[in-house]
Amino acid sequence: MTKIAVCVCSGGIDSTIAATIASHEGYELHFFHASYGQRAEDREKETVKKIARYLGAKDLKLAEIPFLKELGGSALTDIKREVPVAEEVNLDVEKETPSTWVPCRNLILLAHASAYAEVIGAEALSVGFNAEEARSYPDNELEFVKRYNVVLEKAVASFSQPPVVKAPLVQLLKPAIIKKGVEVEAPLHLTYSCYFGEEKHCGICESCLHRRRGFKDAGVEDPTEYMH
Amino acid sequence: MTKIAVCVCSGGIDSTIAATIASHEGYELHFFHASYGQRAEDREKETVKKIARYLGAKDLKLAEIPFLKELGGSALTDIKREVPVAEEVNLDVEKETPSTWVPCRNLILLAHASAYAEVIGAEALSVGFNAEEARSYPDNELEFVKRYNVVLEKAVASFSQPPVVKAPLVQLLKPAIIKKGVEVEAPLHLTYSCYFGEEKHCGICESCLHRRRGFKDAGVEDPTEYMH
Fold this sequence. Notes:
2 copies of one chain form a homodimer. Chain A is of the alpha/beta class and 228 residues long.
């Protein structure tokens, strides 16, 4: 019987590698991308389409989550707030809520993806949560994943088999993730990480800085281009 | 210091009574309603506006959740599926997933309301989950609430105080809920429960049947009108 995974994918390296791993594990892939007003949403959608095609996905759902944009409260979704760049960025443990925090984002994203998984009878939800982002964002921690899986059992209908969130990178930092990506032959050349959504990576936002440092520390050449 | 509650409200009796209880407990009320493609969404919004005004709410957020409509899979959101009425309805324990089940609905709704709560610094989320609906819908059970509160601690930023879901009716069936509503002087005359969204209650859908039986068994006169 076909086993199905819903791959929550932003088009970045982590979620793309997680989806590649799910593919190797024999899942039929159904991609899920969410637009929640983030600056890069159009670029992300275009990227996720390419990645889904590359990995032979069976389907791709592009969800709109307008409430998060309306709510604001984040530099990623509120055009009036500045996204920190270069030396304004703190790549390690935060001392206050980062301006790029989007309230309850991963919970909202996973809840949507879980509804999709319930409807198509998916066994798994694949996510790119990882230890590097968990330094700033608790909704990337293993503990978040574990707790989410527990509530999910009660969030689906009594007669549905609850899907399980799989986060194969949850204990890894970027260099190990990138090495893993090379090992599983993930389409790193198609990935896009920048908060700004321009054609090339800006190279200086938090997300680009994590990416660059990860590739450098992994000793792997980044196949994508940077503006700075 | 002002303590704030986000009141998740459909305009039905349960969530309206829960909000009234939160008001008596001294919370400043911020109402939250979600449109997810349910047939009655316009009627619900109009109802919730009246209830929020009646209870002196500080604010009301009307969220759109278009993905649930797009996903379908429920008689409530898919116009091509029939909503069961009269003898087609099973008011007690279900033997299969009811056609009115909306995939992961309460998880998605609560995740949105939690983002709102995080942004405004609310301590509590008020919901009308109850034992009668929990017979058919596991996302109304006390166990769901408990598990949700556990994941919510990790779904908000590390420096945010996680809000707590309060479900004061979670152990009660409709007659006890209605008696409670009379006791706390909830605006039952403003509430609307029908799945169809017409001006008056249809009187024969699952939601109307629960309501009618509840009022009858509580020995309380329903101040609203029915078509059938």
